[in-house]
Amino acid sequence: MGGLTMDQAFVQAPEHRPKPIVTEATGIPLIDLSPLAASGGAVDALAAEVGAASRDWGFFVVVGHGVPAETVARATEAQRAFFALPAERKAAVRRNEAEPLGYYESEHTKNVRDWKEVYDLVPREPPPPAAVADGELVFDNKWPQDLPGFSFRREALEEYAKAMEELAFKLLELIARSLKLRPDRLHGFFKDQTTFIRLNHYPPCPSPDLALGVGRHKDAGALTILYQDDVGGLDVRRRSDGEWVRVRPVPDSFIINVGDLIQVWSNDRYESAEHRVSVNSARERFSMPYFFNPATYTMVEPVEELVSKDDPPRYDAYNWGDFFSTRKNSNFKKLNVENIQIAHFKKSLVLA
Ligand SMILES: O=C(O)CCC(=O)C(=O)O
Ligand SMILES: [Fe+2]
């Protein structure tokens, strides 16, 4: 199913293979955002919860987020309809190296192939093409034209994206507040955003002991808002002991993870958590991450208010468009060089 055939390209090195016994994550914070809808002074308490979760886990689960269940249901219906198309119709909207949006079934994470197929789209007017270090980045949606009822499904995905954007800005504000920044301090980075939505389909895998749906990685953007179905498979590396633990699906929730940009902006107060996706031989799984990303021209560096003589910036500034494009290309095919990471911009601080 899903057109994938198990071969050597999918096989993880022994140290990265999932263990046969799954450890359920206990203690990943569950945060109820419903106080945001009420007027009153609950915002500071919520910001403190989001701050603690971002510091201790880099991951949290939100409920009471205000996204209507029907909006999610319509988007997931569109997702299932898309992946159910015959392979050649999906191939007609396949992405290529210069145009990163569309269908793809051969993503690599850290040079090992992932057991999945994806469809990427930008949820709003695509940002203008941008010159980046390795060429040009062109964001153009490839909507399947001939999918019966797809205009309706396209609307469903656009409606979902709008709901995600609202939630993303609320979370960004809570994060800014938790860092004692002005509530809209980080908003300006998202004017010409390069946010995209990914529809993920993980078909049943004959060798779930050897392959992964997505290999271990950290999300490069600011925040990820993930919808997952009830199958389960998302594993997070627990900060306290480095163990891989499974994030249990919670109905009507989203999983939020702090990406590399928040790690850099916060000068390491918060950390982008490593995660991966395990697959199984019995059930296909669907998930839908919303990657909240800034404009290509953003220079990423610790925010001024969070550095001082005693706490100097821990990163050199880097350009988001270049980073994003380099990472995208290395996920497109197997390369013989290491994947770009924010660690490459980490300063070696000389401690006095
Ligand atoms: O499918 C999932 O649960 C997570 C996917 C993921 O980590 C990603 O696409 O970056
Ligand atoms: Fe991820």
From TrEMBL:
Its cofactor is L-ascorbate. This is Fe2OG dioxygenase domain-containing protein. Belongs to the iron/ascorbate-dependent oxidoreductase family. Keywords: Iron, Metal-binding, Oxidoreductase. Transmembrane segments: none annotated. GO terms for molecular function: metal ion binding; oxidoreductase activity. Pfam families: 2OG-FeII_Oxy (PF03171), DIOX_N (PF14226). InterPro entries: DIOX_N, IPNS-like_FE2OG_OXY, IPNS-like_sf, Iron_ascorbate_oxido_reductase, Oxoglu/Fe-dep_dioxygenase_dom.
